[in-house]
Amino acid sequence: MNVIEVEELCVRYGTATALDGVSLAVGQGELVALVGANGAGKTTLLNALSGVARRASGRVAIQGRFAHVPEGRQLFPDLTVDDNLRLGAYRVRERDTAWIYRILPELERTRKQRAGNLSGGQQQMVAIGRGLMAQPDVMAIDEMSLGLAPLVARGLIKTLAELNRERGLAVLLVEQSARLAFSLCSRAYVLEAGRVAASGTTRELAESAVLRDVYLGGTTKASA
Amino acid sequence: MSAFLSYVLHGIAIGCGFALLASGLIIIYRVTRVVNLAQGTFAVVAAFTAATVLGTGLPHGLAELVAVLVAALLGLVAGVVAVTKPGTRPQASLIATLGLAIFGYAIEILLWGDQPRSFAGIAGSFELGSVEFPKQYALIVVVTLVMFGLLDAFFEWTYVGKALSACASNPYAARLVGINVVRMALCGFALGGALGGVAGVLLTPMSPVSYDSDVSLFVNGFAAAILAGLKRPLYALGGGIALGVAEALVGGYSKASYQSAFALVLTVLIVVVQGARERNPRMAEE
Q: Is the ipTM of this complex over 0.95?
């Protein structure tokens, strides 16, 4: 069963076409990467999944609960960490945050601090924790590693792998850094100018010459 | 000295009213980015409603409560008109609230006529040394403190209060976690209406209210909100009292007619200084 199914999705901003016939699927408990350059339409796709971006045509179907961890963390900076987490449970009734601190123990000592005062890595943890509070079957995470130290980003990837293993959480990981996304995911889509340019297992894609040059090579240089 | 003290006490009481108006303005502004130009109208309608309901024989307390509920309902209606249409920009909503305030004149004159109205508050006064402190002033201060206490509890301890703060803090993220931002905006407008209504029923026994009193009420409420930095509703208490005392001293030692001018000049000064700070980040850092 697929938790996310997108068929021939088109999204337009005025006269500009952001997504042009994109089809994509994420299976139950699956880890899928969505890579592409800036402006390829990755964030628009996630916004269409959450209903924030209106679709011009096509179909979006989500089975079960969906959480969207947006680009730039998008926390409530004036509220405490604990309040941020609790607001993640707006659609569900269970608002006890204790289990989030067990998964992300580093947040425990910041629970009463204003979210706006945390480091980038801690803010990303709060954003993921807030997403988890919705008790999602699938979580879409936008540019998780952006602005984070590689060690912090790898730590979060490890946490996601654990969540997938222990809770069967499906993840759609949107990254400019294909190398990082491929280290977690088994399957990937490459988005270019609003279209799916390539898709397949991450192993196949990593071996494809074009992708290696454009994304894997490029990101290695960028992060070096 | 006793004159000074009496001006200050008067200023504190009036300032509490300004603070209530300002807190309503701030809540609406924070959630919707709209400066609600109909904020004074809520107070006027509540004052007229209380006068009418008291006239039917309903006791004090209950009559004022009915008036505040009417103001809250009016706030909700203002919200529906100003912000529910998808894609409405804050500037368009602002003009909609101005239209509502002017439309309010027609309704008020139709229902209550164009003469000022008032009703008796609590009679008598306390003796504080050589200064008399009317009991109505004490009531205003106490009710205002209770209202701000409730507001603080609402925003600090309730989930709806947190959701409202979330909408103010980051509307995009609020939508992503499933908060209905428009519904929260309406909640903000209703709360703003109620707070305006409380100000109206408390201030009316001190000076009669007419259909166009909303302008001076808005100007003072807005000045207090600006003094509070349009940030947290609680800061409005300080902003309102500071403005009330300053105006009472200006009125006491020069002319009463300078009071509103003082509020306007103060607002313009703060807006100009803040505008300059925003244009020049280096100045803001200092």
A: no
